[in-house]
Each structure stands twice: as C-alpha cells, then as structure tokens.
Design goal:
single chain; alpha+beta; 3-stranded antiparallel beta sheet; two-stranded antiparallel ribbon
C-alpha cells in the first residue's frame, strides 16, 4: 500500500470488500502468496498510521474480516471507525517518548 500512497499522493482509508475483484490495485503479490500458502485473501482494510503531529509513520493492514462462524465478510463502516480510533492510539504510542 505504500506504493499506492506514494504513487497517487493520497493518504486515506482503503476498504476493499473483495480483493480478487478490486479495480485500480495490483494484488499480484498477494495472489501469489495465496497460491503458495493455500490462504485466500478476500476483504482488506488499510489505514494510515499518523502521529500526534499528523505525520504518516506507517500503515495498518487488516485482511479477512470474519464472522463468529469463520465466514469471511467485508469490513463494515463500524469496523472502519473502531479500527481507525485504534490505529490513531497505536501511532501515538509508537511515537511518544
């Protein structure tokens, strides 16, 4: 995702329900990983990690939101809100001395 951020100059939340049907991204590496390991990536949520000065310090990527019975589903708006708050706290704790 770092390449996406640099290439397009955008730093935003990316929420993809099905990476195998997503347009505008190159998931060749992920697909190769899936093929090699037998894993199947589907939903993806990617958020920028920003410190207390709003500087980008990293990216948090979550893959395959699951229900209690193990079914992979897209990340919801509520998931996105919760993870965004957690990502902010994580970024602050990573950069606080």
């Amino acid at each position: 995702m770092k390449i996406y951020f640099e290439k397009f100059g955008e730093i935003k939340i990316i929420n993809i329900p099905d990476v195998y049907n997503a347009k505008g991204f190159d998931f060749a590496g992920m697909k190769k990983y899936d093929q090699t390991t037998g894993y199947h990536s589907k939903s993806m949520l990617v958020l920028p990690l920003r410190d207390h000065e709003n500087e980008l310090i990293g990216v948090l990527q979550l893959i395959n939101r699951q229900t209690k019975d193990g079914k992979t589903i897209p990340f919801s708006e509520n998931d996105q809100t919760i993870v965004h708050a957690m990502a902010y706290q994580a970024a602050i704790s990573l950069t606080t001395k």
